[in-house]
Design goal:
The protein is built from 4 helices and 3 strands; from the N terminus they run αβααββα. The longest helix has 23 residues, at about 5-30. Helix 2 packs across helix 3 (about 55-65). The model has no long low-confidence stretch (mean pLDDT about 80). It has a 3-stranded antiparallel sheet. It is mostly helical and about 100 residues long.
Length: about 100
Amino acid sequence: MVRCVTPRESLEIIRFFQDIRHITEFLKREPDRYRPVLNGDRYITEAELSELLKITRQTLIEHKATGLIPYYRLGGRILYKEKDIIKLLDENRLEAF
């Protein structure tokens, strides 16, 4: 038995595949933002952290040098544990009046 596809079904199918294509293209453009979890933790680079915190990389380097922000050095690469940054932000949160 041949099933007829209604116009609505075909539009939904077309939209579905367009969405899949859009998501695939987005992930290809942003591969570094979607790195796997290592032992339950995500690690981010200096460039990513400075962008997320809206501070310059120089300011981030100064915070690192003064011990304000914990970091990991692997070879020549500096990484920050996402949980450490979230904890630091929570500890320094000030309530509005």
